[in-house]
Design a protein that fits this description.
Bound molecules: S-adenosylmethionine, iron/sulfur cluster
Number of strands: 20
Oligomer: single chain
Distance between the termini: 24 Å
Length: 462
Amino acid sequence: MEQTLEFDSELIRRYDTSGPRYTSYPTAVQFTEAFTEADFKRWAAATNAERPKPPLSLYFHIPFCDTVCFYCACNKIITKNRKHAVPYLEHLFREIALQGELFDADRPVQQLHWGGGTPTFISHEQMRDLMRATGEHFRLLDDDSGEYSIEIDPREADAETIAVLRELGFNRISLGVQDFDPTVQKAVNRIQSEEETRAVLEAARAEGFRSTSVDLIYGLPHQSVASFAATLDKVIDMDPARLSVFNYAHLPEMFKTQRQINAGELPSSEEKLAILGHTIERLGQAGYVFIGMDHFAKPDDELAVAQRNGTLYRNFQGYSTHAECDLVAMGATSISMVGDSYSQNLKDLEEYAARIDAGHLPVFRGVELDADDKLRRAVITQLICHFELDFAAVERDHGIDFRDYFAAELEGMGDFVRDGLIELDAAAIRVLPRGRLLIRNICMQFDRYLRESRGGRYSKVI
Ligand SMILES: C[S@@+](CC[C@H](N)C(=O)[O-])C[C@H]1O[C@@H](n2cnc3c(N)ncnc32)[C@H](O)[C@@H]1O
Ligand code: SF4
């Protein structure tokens, strides 16, 4: 498939609305406390009974950060006291043991991810202990064939950390950068030099990490097209295989630390759009293709290859190449996807620890998908990953007549056709280069919960 993108600021402004990021469907807004530990166990058993047994994807949440970045919307705990990690890890190890009992020991861990917060907040010894505990309860791959990734804050890692992580089996890293401009860094309380960032990326390459990725954010205070262009040039020069360019949504009522950002210093919406336009142009010139939803990759990176082969997938970790895995997420706030269910762990560290102390899994809410949810999830995933939807394939997999089942949705897509976002005929929807940045809007048409107006508070599409 073609992996091109067309930027039209007037069009984007017209379609600028809030919407989910579709790392799950239904989204977390639909999770309820009616879903319990017993339901999770039932789903785990059901997946063990599938033939072939699906492989596993494991996620571990390490919530701690040393200092706060004012823009941050992640689930994190700010502390300078490294000892806080000790009781947390003890409980995490016990959760690993409880979860390990539920999944057959012969199911290989094809994908593994440490996220945060800042996973490199913990010591090298604690990292070794965490991977050892995981290996005691799950079948880790020892031939480097899995996709084992970690989020790294370059201020919290050096060449030795990278060597330890490689030794533990990691083969992918993503680095938080956001912006290299000193004025922007000061305004968001994240002082991070180009040198320390480059050193971590170079160490990762020297250690043989398969893929490197960098996170940037546009829309931060004091950013302009020129200042962000300078950051982009520095990052392009560092040559990561992937780039995530996130849109900063200023929601100080929802995220307390954002109150420390002076709204008067934020770029105007016109400037933000211009930054996005320049970013797309510059990344295209530098040889990156648009994967979708904030993500860019080199054409030979696995994500870009998977998109061209039709095997790309999207889950809580963003885009991925492992569609077939059950996702078992451990640690406070983390979200699992096992069989046809999603479930989330308790968010408060004390409550999380107390549930484990009582010998229970810390699951506190979730949702089971019905046939309609599964159908809509398949449609949304296909569109968001591949920008193309073949009705016959959906009809075959789900036993429906597409145009009949989705008559109202298709009817509602007239504007998309008129505005050149999509091509719609009797057999398929094709998202055109002008519609790719607006893929969320297109997916939202197929979201039953939004249609029934039971959606929640979401960030802006662009
Ligand atoms: C868990 S952090 C990455 C690891 C590490 N904590 C760090 O910051 O380097 C995940 C990423 O989320 C993005 N992020 C956090 N808050 C955001 C916000 N309010 N808007 C957009 N992106 C955000 C940042 O790009 C950040 O790198
Ligand atoms: S961006 Fe990363 S380092 Fe900064 S507060 Fe958020 S999770 Fe922590």
